[in-house]
């Protein structure tokens, strides 16, 4: 039995109680039906055989009852002093119920303290943040802010931003303009009309220079370059008052954020394109992370309960958390994986996956959802709700009872049950008031002394710390889907690197894969370099989340640990880095070797918004449909009398997030093959996202291009298959008949798009029993010796066909949504019936922006593209 269940911003497909695919919840305002790469990969973590499976203490397996007894005994010893020696350490919390429970713990133990440590969140609770409305913004300026990918509200931001760039016809077309300043290329920066690569410590003076031209401040700490860019940005913002957005990333210090607020206020953006976010109401009795570590060093903490996270791995290097941790009398760690912190804890308690337990959560925009489980817990474990319930001394209850009782206590109305059930059905709570806490404290932080601040230095190099775009802070290090997902610019897999600029590489005589010694604040590590076009000249970017020592078999020993250099006063960047070539080499694996496609072949078409609106020949110059007189094929296409499926990929709105790649992997049972096989060109992804550079290598323009199977009408693969394994059907689909395939690979050799994948090895026979549960039963699991490729999600086509035939109707437009299109936050992929002249895909194919990739080959692909347009400021038009 197949079912769908709601989970916060997502819905989850389940087969007989077995979750297999996570999708976005279309009714949730923060996602609008899209998902991130991490949400797609979360289902793989559920079935990970390396998850913690039993309660342990000193390496011995115990029961949950043993832990409850030990915890109660420890609480009895700290209770006489009001809990003065009790400390609770958590990650950032967005659950109203969990926060209310923490407040209850602090009431029972008034001398206890609660601390937050999240290595990726500076202020932990996003206080003083704003919601940006990019649908109303004509001009967007981002200072080191990856709001399209890494922001908590990125899904909604990507949708609104992309809609403001969506163009079909030239008549009445409008397009926003994006300026970005950042030290290392990001998804947001790659979509900018005008991007400049500047050091992270130069963002503040750059912002000050713009603010001074806007008349909001006269203070300049440092002279900056890029005067033309500054003048253009200031002029555009002035010309579009009340229709702009200025946003800074959380990697920047408070001074930059304060300046952003001043500029937005001065331009009249507040209340129109900028709206404040209601802050979370937080319990009292909080202390900073540095204070907690100091107390641990002094031996003042007897009982430390760590809920989630991995502070022994990712705490600032100068805190010496490891030594302080050993001085705590009783250490309890609650997490889904046995990790570096677990190894040095007295008790490790497995945490339930969110698909196994009830909870609630608050999105960035303030909307709240109830998290609902889809499967019984696979291993012995418990939830954070149940641990906090034990700390308050209450009788054990299930997570469902805890969450529901909190909401019912706050909403004592006769129709509570009806409203509760509607909330569970809709996935968003609209009619109920969330649980509140009994004691409120000030905003939490690392302490003022540990926040990133502007600190000029005479050093020539700065180090920049960023979470890896796939494994983040390290929590996804054991996820094979994410490890094998090519990084967005380097296309590296199974690795992190020290990203350096081409200028720095030339100066230091470095090549890709050269090992260098990096020294920062008297700490040193060794890392391989990767030369990244668009990197700030004197900035070296290190990706966090690698070099794990205690993790599952997938992530163990992969990459280097950048946390070893990260200090509390340089959480995101700092001056004073030195590098020295060591003489060693590291072998990287990248899935894309050529990033320049501007030449005689029509792979990528691009232009400017001005050209599109002013030049009536733009369409003809950007389309390469050959004349029928030149073709060797029958010029008369097969007369499709029923459905005629096709796809359009809009490069103008595609942000290059790679969500389509991993959604396709989850939907179509695509295996993980490992670094060695990828190095041999045997990656199995059915849809890849190529990234191309144009212009100067120091500051190139970026273009991302998703490439699935083209489903060519004149398919070169079909002509050469000796056994008819690749054939056309009467709806225009290029089918792959697995049972016929004998593995000659002629079809792959003859495919000009290189989108066919061959199973060289039996990738699925090594799976554990739990890993097999993630497979989608609607899709065949392929074996060794079989060619495979994108099918337009034919299983979804057939499901819609069955439903339509039962209702005696035709399949409606939008009724079939392939996995790649469903996940896309920018709605860059459109699929449908070309024979339906009113369908969206048919309308898009009539646009002058629509073109065939490699159209001169006369393959006549069913997948077409929209040309990439850039809305350049005339004052900054590039000479190249």
Would you give an account of this structure?
The chain is α/β, with parallel strands linked by helices. It has 26 helices and 37 strands. The strands form eleven sheets. The protein has a seven-stranded mixed β-sheet. Strand 28 (about 690-695) and strand 29 (about 700-705) form a beta hairpin. Helix 1 packs parallel to helix 20 (about 660-665). Residues about 440-460 and about 625-630 have low confidence and may be disordered.
Please give the structural blueprint.
Layout: E1 2-7, E2 10-15, E3 18-24, H1 37-46, E4 55-57, E5 60-62, H2 64-78, E6 86-90, H3 96-108, E7 113-116, E8 130-132, E9 139-143, H4 154-163, E10 177-182, H5 187-190, E11 194-197, H6 203-214, H7 227-239, E12 244-248, H8 254-266, E13 274-276, H9 289-298, E14 303-307, H10 311-314, H11 321-326, E15 330-335, H12 340-343, E16 347-350, E17 359-362, E18 368-371, H13 384-391, H14 399-410, H15 416-426, E19 462-467, H16 480-483, E20 498-500, H17 502-508, E21 514-520, E22 523-531, E23 539-544, E24 573-575, E25 578-585, E26 606-608, H18 609-614, H19 618-622, E27 645-650, H20 659-667, H21 675-679, E28 688-694, E29 701-707, H22 716-720, E30 726-728, E31 734-736, H23 746-750, E32 757-758, E33 787-788, H24 794-806, H25 819-823, E34 829-833, H26 840-845, E35 850-851, E36 863-866, E37 868-870
Parallel strand pairs: 6-7, 6-14, 9-10, 9-12, 10-11, 14-15, 15-16, 19-23, 20-22, 26-37, 27-36
Antiparallel strand pairs: 1-2, 2-3, 4-5, 4-16, 8-13, 17-18, 19-24, 20-23, 21-22, 21-25, 27-34, 28-29, 30-31, 32-33, 35-36
Helix pairs in contact: 1-20, 3-13, 6-7, 6-8
């Amino acid at each position: 039995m197949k079912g769908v269940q709601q989970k916060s911003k997502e819905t989850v497909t389940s087969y007989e109680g077995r979750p297999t695919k996570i999708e976005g919840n279309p009714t949730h305002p923060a996602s609008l039906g899209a998902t991130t790469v991490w949400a797609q990969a979360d289902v793989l973590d559920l079935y990970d055989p390396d998850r913690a499976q039993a309660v342990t203490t000193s390496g011995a397996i115990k029961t949950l009852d043993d832990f409850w007894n030990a915890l109660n005994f420890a609480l009895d010893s700290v209770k006489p002093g009001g809990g003065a020696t009790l400390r609770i350490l958590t990650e950032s919390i967005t659950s109203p119920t969990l926060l209310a429970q923490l407040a209850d713990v602090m009431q029972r133990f008034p001398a206890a303290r609660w601390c937050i440590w999240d290595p990726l969140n500076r202020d932990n609770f996003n206080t003083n943040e704003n919601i940006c409305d990019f649908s109303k913004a004509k001009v967007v300026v981002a200072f080191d802010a990856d709001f399209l990918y890494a922001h908590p509200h990125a899904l909604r931001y990507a949708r609104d931003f992309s809609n403001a760039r969506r163009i079909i016809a030239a008549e009445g077309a409008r397009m926003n303009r994006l300026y970005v300043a950042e030290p290392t290329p990001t998804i947001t920066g790659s979509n900018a009309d005008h991007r400049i690569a500047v050091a992270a410590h130069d963002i503040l003076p750059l912002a000050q220079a713009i603010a001074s031209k806007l008349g909001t401040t006269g203070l300049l700490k440092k002279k900056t370059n890029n005067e033309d860019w500054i003048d253009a940005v200031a002029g555009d913002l002035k010309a579009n008052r009340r229709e702009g957005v200025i946003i800074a990333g959380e990697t920047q210090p408070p001074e930059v954020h304060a300046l952003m607020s001043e500029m937005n206020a001065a331009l009249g953006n507040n209340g129109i394109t900028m709206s404040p976010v209601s802050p979370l109401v937080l319990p009292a009795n909080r202390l900073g992370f540095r204070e907690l570590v100091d107390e641990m060093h002094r031996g003042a903490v007897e009982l430390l309960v760590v809920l989630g996270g991995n502070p022994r791995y990712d705490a600032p290097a100068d805190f010496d958390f490891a030594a302080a941790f050993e001085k705590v009398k009783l250490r309890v760690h609650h997490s889904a994986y046995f990790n570096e912190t677990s190894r040095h804890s007295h008790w490790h308690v497995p945490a339930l996956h969110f698909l196994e337990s009830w909870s609630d959560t608050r999105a960035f925009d303030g909307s709240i959802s109830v998290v609902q489980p889809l499967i019984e817990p696979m291993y012995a474990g418990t939830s954070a709700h149940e641990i906090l319930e034990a700390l308050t001394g209450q009788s054990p209850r299930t997570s469902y009872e805890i969450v529901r009782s909190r909401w019912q206590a706050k909403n004592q109305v006769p129709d509570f049950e009806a409203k509760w059930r509607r909330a569970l059905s809709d996935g968003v709570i609209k009619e109920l008031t969330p649980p509140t806490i009994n004691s409120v404290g000030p905003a939490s932080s690392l302490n003022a002394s540990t926040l990133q601040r502007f600190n000029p230095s005479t050093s020539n190099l700065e180090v920049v710390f960023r979470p890896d775009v796939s494994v983040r802070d390290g929590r996804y290090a054991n996820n094979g889907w994410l490890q094998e997902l090519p990084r967005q610019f380097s296309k590296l897999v199974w690795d992190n690197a020290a990203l350096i600029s081409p200028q720095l590489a030339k100066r230091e005589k470095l090549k890709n894969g050269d090992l260098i010694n990096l020294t920062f604040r008297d700490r040193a590590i060794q890392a391989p370099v990767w030369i990244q076009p668009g990197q700030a000249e004197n900035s070296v970017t290190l990706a966090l989340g690698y070099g794990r020592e205690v993790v599952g078999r997938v992530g163990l020993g992969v990459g280097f640990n950048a946390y070893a250099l990260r200090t509390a006063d340089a959480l995101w960047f700092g001056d004073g880095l030195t590098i020295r070539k060591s003489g060693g080499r590291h072998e990287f694996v990248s899935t894309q070797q050529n990033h320049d496609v501007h030449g005689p072949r029509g792979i990528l078409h691009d232009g400017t918004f001005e050209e599109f609106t002013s030049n009536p020949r733009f369409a003809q110059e950007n389309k390469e449909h050959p004349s029928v007189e030149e073709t060797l094929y029958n010029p008369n296409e097969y007369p499709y009398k029923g459905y005629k499926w096709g796809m359009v990929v809009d490069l103008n709105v595609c942000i290059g997030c790679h969500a389509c790649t991993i959604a396709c992997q989850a939907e179509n049972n695509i295996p993980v093959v490992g670094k060695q096989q990828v190095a041999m060109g045997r990656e199995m992804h059915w849809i890849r996202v190529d990234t191309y550079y144009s212009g100067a290598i120091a500051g190139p323009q970026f273009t991302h291009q998703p490439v699935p199977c083209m489903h060519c009408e004149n398919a070169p693969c079909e002509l050469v298959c000796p056994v008819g394994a690749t054939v056309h059907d009467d709806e225009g689909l290029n089918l792959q008949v697995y049972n016929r395939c004998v593995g000659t690979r002629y079809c792959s050799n003859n495919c000009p798009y290189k989108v066919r994948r061959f199973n060289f090895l039996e990738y699925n026979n090594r799976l554990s029993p739990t890993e097999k549960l993630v497979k989608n039963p609607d899709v065949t699991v392929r074996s060794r010796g079989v060619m495979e490729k994108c099918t337009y999600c034919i299983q979804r086509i057939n499901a819609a066909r069955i439903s339509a035939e039962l209702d005696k109707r035709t399949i409606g437009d939008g009724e079939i949504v392939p996995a790649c299109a469903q996940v896309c936050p920018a709605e860059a992929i459109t699929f449908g019936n070309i024979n339906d002249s009113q369908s969206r895909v048919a309308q898009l194919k009539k646009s002058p922006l629509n073109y065939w990739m490699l159209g001169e080959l006369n393959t006549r692909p069913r997948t077409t593209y929209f040309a990439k347009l850039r809305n350049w400021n005339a004052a900054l038009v590039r000479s190249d």
